[in-house]
Amino acid sequence: MSDTVPGSDVRSADAAPREQPSRPWLVAAVAAVGVLIGANLLLARVTGGEALFCVARSDCGAVHASRYAMFLGAPTAAWGVGLYAVIGGLALGGLPARRWLAAFQLSVVGLATSTYLAYLAVRVLGAACVYCLLSAAIAATLSAALLAWRPPVAPHRSLLRAGPLMALTTVTAFATVLIAAAGFALGSSP
Fold first, then answer.
1. Could you report the per-residue pLDDT of 73-112, keeping only the tens digit for each?
2. Which of 11, 115, 138, 172 could cross-link with 15 by S-S, CB 3.0 to 4.6 Å?
3. CA 181, CA 105: separation in Å to the nearest integer?
């Protein structure tokens, strides 16, 4: 059975309204900045040079040369580029409920990872890398912007309700830090 009246553009009264994906351009723009920053760090890592605006022997160099610059065999910057690119792509494609939830949870992964890496830089390495701090700020901005574009809550989308969303976000952040810690521990030199 069709949900439109034959010969017209009008939906029948019993047809469920279709969800129209929104395109939060701010989310896509912030994610693009994250991609550019990550690409800058990735290029420096691959070429063995310094990231733009970081001088030799700076805190950026100390972090860039540390064991925390690699995660599970790939540069941490590559992981960041991929994460920000996926979030940006989701935003550009529109964010109906399921894709919004994926983008939001990815932003939480980015925020938890960036915060953990900033902690490691400051507390373990004794360095304050401006790019680490900027990445954490970008991830926080993405999370906040995505919350601003949160789709309307419907009864069949319980994960979008405040309580379940907070629980899922907490579990995601905690699991991210545990995975990051395990990944860095496995990748450390004996």
1. 899 999 999 999 999 999 999 988 889 999 999 999 999 9
2. 11
3. 19
Q: For residue 185, what are the contacts with CB-CB under 8 A and spacing of at least 6?
A: none
Report d(CA 39, CA 169) in Å as an integer: 27
Q: What is the CA radius of gyration of the chain?
A: 20
**154-177 pLDDT, tens digit each:** 766 567 778 888 899 999 999 999
Q: Identify the CATH number of the domain in which residue 164 sits.
A: 1.20.1440.130
Are the beta carbons of 70 and 183 closer than 8 angstroms? Answer: no
75 phi/psi in degrees, rounded to 5: -60, 140
- Is residue 20, in this structure, part of any structural domain at all? no
Would you say residue 95 lies in a domain? yes
Instruction: Report if residue 154 sits inside a domain.
Output: no
What whole-number distance in Å separates Cα of residue 50 and Cα of residue 40? 9
